[in-house]
Amino acid sequence: MHDEHNTNPCGLSHGAWLNEPKLHSAPTTQTLDLETDDATDFWRETHYGFTHDSGHFLGVETPSSFTCQLRIRGAFEALYDQAGLMIRVNERQWVKAGIELSDGQAMLGSVLTDGQSDWATSPYTADPGDFWMRATVAEGVLRLQVSSDGRRWPLVRLCPFPVAPHYQVGPMACSPKRGGLKVAFSDWTLGPALGKDLHDLT
């Protein structure tokens, strides 16, 4: 059956791959399933000294301000298995945010990269196998939020972010220590920046 929603330019079906995985579904407006290739990652320099730009990312072009959100379901089993959202200006300026397995525990983390990567991480107490991420970019500010149910959205990170005429945003997944991380992305939305108060968690 023809999916009339695939004509939506904000849908995942209009995304462009960076490092397309060998195994993935055809993206629809709101969904994508994939299985990661071996030894995939996004990281620049800090602490480890290496630069990796081999992770999987399906990017949808946005205007200069936007809000996007996405549901992520994954089976995180190996060290550094990760999946979530990515917002990208270029190979030196990007952020990724979601669940990452570290020290045997599923952690909620974000990596902000502007020439070099940082890493902010904390334990995630809800179900790490089924969660939501939301990102809002406007006027040089990035706001990241997480949700366990798609209704309440606590703050993950508020930080400066490079101003650009447009961005690439969408699902991201990596597995630096193996291949075969299976992730189901769904409920994708992309629209104008919400402009909500910082403590409005709806």
UniProtKB/TrEMBL annotation:
<dbReference type="InterPro" id="IPR015987">
    <property type="entry name" value="UCP022704"/>
</dbReference>
<protein>
    <submittedName>
        <fullName>DUF1349 domain-containing protein</fullName>
    </submittedName>
</protein>
<dbReference type="InterPro" id="IPR009784">
    <property type="entry name" value="DUF1349"/>
</dbReference>
<dbReference type="InterPro" id="IPR013320">
    <property type="entry name" value="ConA-like_dom_sf"/>
</dbReference>
<dbReference type="Pfam" id="PF07081">
    <property type="entry name" value="DUF1349"/>
</dbReference>
